[in-house]
Amino acid sequence: xxxxxxxxxxxxxxxxxxxxxxxxxxxxxxxxxxxxxxxxxxxxxxxxxxxxxxxxxxxxxxxxxxxxxxxxxxxxxxxxxxxxxxxxxxxxxxxxxxxxxxxxxxxxxxxxxxxxxxxxxxxxxxxxxxxxxxxxxxxxxxxxxxxxxxxxxxxxxxxxxxxxxxxxxxxxxxxxxxxxxxxxxxxxxxxxxxxxxxxxxxxxxxxxxxxxxxxxxxxxxxxxxxxxxxxxxxxxxxxxxxxxxxxxxxxxxxxxxxxxxxxxxxxxxxxxxxxxxxxxxxxxxxxxxxxxxxxxxxxxxxxxxxxxxxxxxxxxxxxxxxxxxxxxxxxxxxxxxxxxxxxxxxxxxxxxxxxxxxxxxxxxxxxxxxxxxxxxxxxxxxxxxxxxxxxxxxxxxxxxxxxxxxxxxxxxxxxx
Length: 416
Hints:
By secondary structure, this protein is α/β, with parallel strands linked by helices.
């Protein structure tokens, strides 16, 4: 930990305030905010720094003093900012200003004051993976972006954006499940008429009670004993064999049945619902997770991320969340086999809000869709572009996450 004071401007750009703290480890942090605003962001930065120290021994000794400094006005002028902050710039040698956040007036006023008082300034340019210092040659020694990105996790970034550490959970990912996602991809992508017909039969097989999984134990036991529809196509047979290899199904006498572990029998309905979802559509989430695992540009993959506490359920479940180590931000991904029987525009809008809630203003929302109608694609792409959603359709999904040659993060392709 260093003895200098870091002054930063509190705003929704929380990660751009957290990264310099991680890189240079100041002894004191003055959090400047407009009067009456950004209390949540201020507290979230403190929570993230504590979470970092608890999670990594390298940061265990970093316990900076935080100072909450509220400006005199909610929307101050440049001159008001200058006057309010002047006392904090009395020791130029041991003060650094991070002017990345804040409103334009606050940023300009703080930067002007720093320039006149010969206080070093930095700008956190996460898109280009650099800290921009002024004056030139005034940079402090610290971690670079390649080093910083290795410490970024979904929980850390979420903590910096108001999600209490430990308040989120995700499903464990087993190697067999990833293998099933890989195996399912070519069959689902090609989608022969026979395969599409089988998907309909499969849906009717599991959702045999008014379009839903049955609730009674008797009907559930009956469903476990009942063989799945017989495959009439080689691709369907290979798909079911892949599910059996992943221990989702079991094969007996040429028939396929649900494979239920002893632990799953306590919640048989939930187990069958999960199985049905995996065979019908959740396999795509596993395929995307597997692609992310294989690309060093991405880290800390979380599948089916959701709040633990019931009172936080409004946040809902998110298919896939990971850290984009190149752009140093969260990537929030929704995976859908199709957009039929959905409200695509509303889904994209909700996805953007979910990304912002979990990862702040710089988080990236992505929608991966296996297939869309030719007459719908242009409309969906226009909606996605206007909302800032990265839309991947069909084989664009696998192409987007192909690891670059060279093997390291610095050799991976970045996406603005």
